[in-house]
Specification:
outer membrane lipoprotein receptor (LolB), chain A; 8 helices; alpha+beta; globular; 24% helix; 13-stranded antiparallel sheet
């Protein structure tokens, strides 16, 4: 009877434990984690954390040292030195960079840039503002880690960057987080929590990436120490002088006419994919379309050829052909109007004895951009086998916007890559620091943290043409429920052709070999 009573007691305990586990939500687990670390007030008081100690690389077993530094809201620096090997990964809130023995010093790009910035924000936030940042959390289930029961929670940022979190089911302390880096899974394990100024900090950290594991033994944790902000910035080491960035950007405008002329000899394929992130953070593909792309008088023309992997029907092809021809006529008209405006401005400038304006007064141009934004942290790097100039841009402090366009520009930060010799932008990244509202928010609203990426590829050693574009954003249109959209464009199959006359413009025939 005693044995039966014991079994029943154990079953009841297991049942209660199971009920407790199943009753949890992702939000409540995060809240209990905040309380377990020391409480919201104590965590909010932390503006920077400096962690130092020893590191061991496995399986090699070599010893070394590390420095882990964070600074709110989005700066992060991790440096490890093991023998002759040295690696730094850092983010200053605008851009992220890496330096290691194998690859040298470089700015991260694409999803790695997004991942690094998201990781820097995550390391600083301590789960205090994830709701405000529109990050979704959902409970994936229960598991065991090193023999301990854990809750598995997935976080998805509004730009689609995901991270798995493993919380101890008893203490609610974080035992592991997991994300993707360089196309491989990166796992960070935490243990041996100790109180530092009323906040529990891990004194044992392990980083696993691919086949390599770094075991960090923490010796010291300091909150709110003085931090040199430049440590998060890309190191400036180039011996070759940098040009005046404002003059460089203006030279790009002057070079645009030549670029447009060369670009109109090319056609290529664009594959566009759009996905949505639902309220639970799940990513679902919505559409996939393929276009033939070419240029007319500087405007890009797109002709749809496939949708969701299927060739268009004959009737759809006819409608698309009609749409494209109509667009070409519109572009012809716009080009004539543009040329007339330019001629009028140049005539007026000549009458005043000036060289003439390089930008269209009706558009937000480079000079407007330079007035609103400041260019910081310029450097020389290698990109696609060529030397480029890279710099970050941010709102100019104290500047008061004169127009809606300037107000929108003030809410952007980003990075730009420029081929100085070719005088072309080869890559650009930007994101919103505040919501951008159109029509006071009644027409549309673009959420904070929306990201835009555009990258080009050097073709025939004469011109840079689009290679990749990406948009990650949350938006609301006409007060309709907000959408979180992830959209990519991949460009390929570049072909060169020539059109001797534009009196009758015909679409390039992709079935014929290009005229080289």
């Amino acid at each position: 009877m005693k044995r039966i009573a014991t079994i029943l007691t154990l079953l009841a305990a297991c049942s209660l434990c199971s009920a407790s586990l199943s009753a949890q939500s992702a939000e409540s687990i995060v809240e209990k984690h905040i309380k377990a670390r020391g409480g919201k007030k104590a965590l909010q008081a932390i503006r920077s954390v400096r962690i130092t100690g020893s590191v061991t690389s496995n399986p090699a077993g070599q010893p070394g040292e590390f420095l882990w530094q964070t600074r709110a809201p989005g700066s992060f620096y991790l440096e490890t030195r093991i023998g002759d090997a040295h690696r730094v990964e850092a983010c200053n809130g605008k851009s992220a960079w890496v330096e290691d023995t194998a690859g040298g010093l470089r700015t991260l790009t694409g999803r790695e840039q997004s991942r690094a910035r998201a990781a820097a924000l995550y390391r600083n936030d301590r789960f205090l503002n994830y709701r405000k940042d529109k990050t979704k959390v959902q409970l994936l289930g229960h598991d065991t880690l090193a023999g301990r029961p854990v809750f598995v929670v997935e976080m998805t940022t509004q730009t689609g960057v995901q991270r798995k979190l493993f919380f101890d089911a008893e203490s609610y302390l974080l035992l592991k987080d997991e994300a993707e880096r360089d196309g491989r899974r990166e796992e960070v394990f935490f243990g041996d929590y100790r109180a530092v100024g009323g906040v529990k900090e891990p004194y044992r950290i392990s980083l696993r990436h691919g086949t390599e594991t770094l075991d960090l033994a923490v010796h010291d944790v300091v909150h709110n120490s003085e931090v040199t902000t430049t440590m998060f910035d890309f190191p400036s080491r180039s011996a070759r002088p940098l040009p005046d960035l404002g003059a460089l950007l203006l030279s790009l405008v002057k070079n645009q006419k030549r670029i447009d002329e060369i670009r109109e000899d090319y056609t290529y394929t664009s594959k566009e994919t759009e996905s949505e992130i639902d309220g639970r953070g799940n990513i679902k593909q919505k559409s996939a379309e393929e276009y033939e792309v070419f240029y007319v008088h500087g405007w890009r023309i797109k002709k749809l050829v496939r949708k969701n992997g299927m060739q268009l029907s004959e009737s759809e092809q006819r409608k698309e052909q009609e749409r494209v021809e109509k667009r070409i006529k519109e572009v012809e008209k716009l080009a004539k109007e543009r040329d007339a405006r330019v001629a009028k401005r140049e005539a007026a400038a000549k009458k005043r004895g000036e060289a003439g304006a390089d930008e269209d007064d009706d558009n937000f141009g480079i000079s407007d951009f330079l007035r609103v934004c400041q260019l910081v942290h310029p450097r020389r790097e290698r990109f696609s086998g060529r030397e480029v100039i890279v710099f970050e841009f941010e709102p100019r402090p104290g500047y008061k916007a004169r127009s809606r366009a300037e107000s929108m520009a003030q809410k952007l930060v980003g990075v730009m890559w420029i081929d100085e010799d070719a005088q072309e932008v080869v890559r650009a990244e930007a994101r919103t620091t505040e919501p951008i509202r159109i029509g006071g928010g009644l027409l549309a609203s673009l959420g904070k943290g929306a990201e835009f990426v555009f990258e080009q590829e050097r073709i025939n050693n004469e011109i840079w043409l689009p290679r990749y574009a990406e948009v990650n954003m949350s938006a609301r249109v006409l007060l309709v429920k907000g959408l979180k959209v992830h959209r990519t464009e991949q460009f390929s199959d570049y072909k060169k052709f020539r059109i001797e006359t534009r009196q009758v413009i015909k679409l390039p025939d992709a079935s014929k070999p290009p005229d080289m």
